[in-house]
């Protein structure tokens, strides 16, 4: 077995992966990851957006019983829960875990007031996303994410392997070189289920109070927390 890279023994290793075609390195990265990390030490945290669907299909080819976590904030669109059900039917061997926050929406409202996402979205994301992910990956060595470099300036320097200071972990990003068009070409070519909101000008889909349709789909993150300075939920910021 090849040596696993961990947070503790981290060192950037250039040229570790082949730029396999047509996957732009994604298959090679995933194959390596599921070889070097024991299955209880690696997880894919998916939002079941378009990138997530591609990753799920690739992961399933390599590790049919892979562990996938969905952060179920209880504030997702019905279409998001629909696509998860479709994925569960299409890939029944995958182990899809819906991780809920410690606080229900009612308990959150009692503690912080109603509609926390309007007043303090960072606090809301912390309670409903960051803490649950920390709990979910606390005993893992590595987690997989669907970040792509073209999504935003803050993601432009993402590597296949990243030392994740926030979760003291290795963050694996197989899709960094993929374009939005390539994501969709893959989904269509493999006739994969996808979130129907993508057909209605929602390129990036999160919780319904914080996700709007966009006029220009070239800016894939524009519909998230629109009208505020917030651009990330906090999972990918230090
Ligand atoms: Fe709360 Fe919005 Fe963050 Fe969802 S995306 S956890 S509703 S602030």
TrEMBL record:
<comment type="function">
    <text>Catalyzes the formation of sulfite from adenosine 5'-phosphosulfate (APS) using thioredoxin as an electron donor.</text>
</comment>
<feature type="compositionally biased region" description="Polar residues">
    <location>
        <begin position="226"/>
        <end position="238"/>
    </location>
</feature>
<keyword id="KW-0560">Oxidoreductase</keyword>
<dbReference type="GO" id="GO:0043866">
    <property type="term" value="F:adenylyl-sulfate reductase (thioredoxin) activity"/>
</dbReference>
<comment type="pathway">
    <text>Sulfur metabolism; hydrogen sulfide biosynthesis; sulfite from sulfate.</text>
</comment>
<feature type="binding site">
    <location>
        <position position="124"/>
    </location>
    <ligand>
        <name>[4Fe-4S] cluster</name>
    </ligand>
</feature>
<dbReference type="GO" id="GO:0005737">
    <property type="term" value="C:cytoplasm"/>
</dbReference>
<feature type="binding site">
    <location>
        <position position="210"/>
    </location>
    <ligand>
        <name>[4Fe-4S] cluster</name>
    </ligand>
</feature>
<feature type="binding site">
    <location>
        <position position="207"/>
    </location>
    <ligand>
        <name>[4Fe-4S] cluster</name>
    </ligand>
</feature>
<keyword id="KW-0408">Iron</keyword>
<feature type="binding site">
    <location>
        <position position="125"/>
    </location>
    <ligand>
        <name>[4Fe-4S] cluster</name>
    </ligand>
</feature>
<dbReference type="GO" id="GO:0070814">
    <property type="term" value="P:hydrogen sulfide biosynthetic process"/>
</dbReference>
<feature type="domain" description="Phosphoadenosine phosphosulphate reductase">
    <location>
        <begin position="41"/>
        <end position="213"/>
    </location>
</feature>
<dbReference type="InterPro" id="IPR004511">
    <property type="entry name" value="PAPS/APS_Rdtase"/>
</dbReference>
<dbReference type="InterPro" id="IPR002500">
    <property type="entry name" value="PAPS_reduct_dom"/>
</dbReference>
<protein>
    <recommendedName>
        <fullName>Adenosine 5'-phosphosulfate reductase</fullName>
        <ecNumber>1.8.4.10</ecNumber>
    </recommendedName>
</protein>
<dbReference type="Pfam" id="PF01507">
    <property type="entry name" value="PAPS_reduct"/>
</dbReference>
<keyword id="KW-0479">Metal-binding</keyword>
<keyword id="KW-0411">Iron-sulfur</keyword>
<dbReference type="GO" id="GO:0019344">
    <property type="term" value="P:cysteine biosynthetic process"/>
</dbReference>
<dbReference type="InterPro" id="IPR011798">
    <property type="entry name" value="APS_reductase"/>
</dbReference>
<keyword id="KW-0963">Cytoplasm</keyword>
<feature type="active site" description="Nucleophile; cysteine thiosulfonate intermediate">
    <location>
        <position position="233"/>
    </location>
</feature>
<dbReference type="InterPro" id="IPR014729">
    <property type="entry name" value="Rossmann-like_a/b/a_fold"/>
</dbReference>
<dbReference type="GO" id="GO:0019379">
    <property type="term" value="P:sulfate assimilation, phosphoadenylyl sulfate reduction by phosphoadenylyl-sulfate reductase (thioredoxin)"/>
</dbReference>
<feature type="region of interest" description="Disordered">
    <location>
        <begin position="219"/>
        <end position="238"/>
    </location>
</feature>
<dbReference type="GO" id="GO:0051539">
    <property type="term" value="F:4 iron, 4 sulfur cluster binding"/>
</dbReference>
<dbReference type="GO" id="GO:0004604">
    <property type="term" value="F:phosphoadenylyl-sulfate reductase (thioredoxin) activity"/>
</dbReference>
<dbReference type="GO" id="GO:0046872">
    <property type="term" value="F:metal ion binding"/>
</dbReference>
<comment type="similarity">
    <text>Belongs to the PAPS reductase family. CysH subfamily.</text>
</comment>
């Amino acid at each position: 077995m090849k040596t696993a890279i961990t947070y503790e023994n981290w060192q950037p290793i250039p040229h570790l992966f082949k730029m396999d075609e047509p996957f732009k390195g994604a298959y090679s990265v995933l194959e390596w990851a599921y070889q070097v990390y024991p299955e209880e030490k690696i997880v894919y945290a998916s939002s079941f957006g378009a990138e997530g669907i591609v990753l799920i299909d690739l992961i399933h080819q390599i590790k049919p019983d892979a562990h996938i976590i969905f952060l179920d904030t209880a504030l997702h669109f019905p279409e998001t829960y629909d696509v998860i059900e479709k994925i569960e039917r299409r890939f029944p061997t995958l182990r899809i875990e819906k991780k809920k926050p410690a606080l229900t929406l009612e308990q959150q409202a009692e503690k912080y007031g109603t509609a926390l996402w309007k007043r303090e979205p960072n606090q809301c994301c912390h309670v409903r996303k960051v803490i649950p992910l920390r709990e979910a990956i606390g005993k893992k060595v590595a987690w997989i994410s669907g970040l792509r470099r073209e999504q935003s300036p803050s993601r432009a320097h993402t590597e296949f392997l990243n030392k994740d200071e926030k979760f003291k972990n290795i963050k694996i990003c197989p899709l960094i070189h993929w374009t939005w068009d390539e994501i969709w070409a893959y989904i269509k070519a493999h006739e994969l289920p996808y979130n129907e909101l993508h057909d209605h000008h929602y390129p990036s889909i999160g919780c319904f109070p914080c996700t709007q349709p966009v006029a220009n789909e070239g800016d894939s993150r524009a519909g998230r927390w629109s009208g505020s300075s917030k651009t990330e939920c906090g999972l990918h910021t230090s």
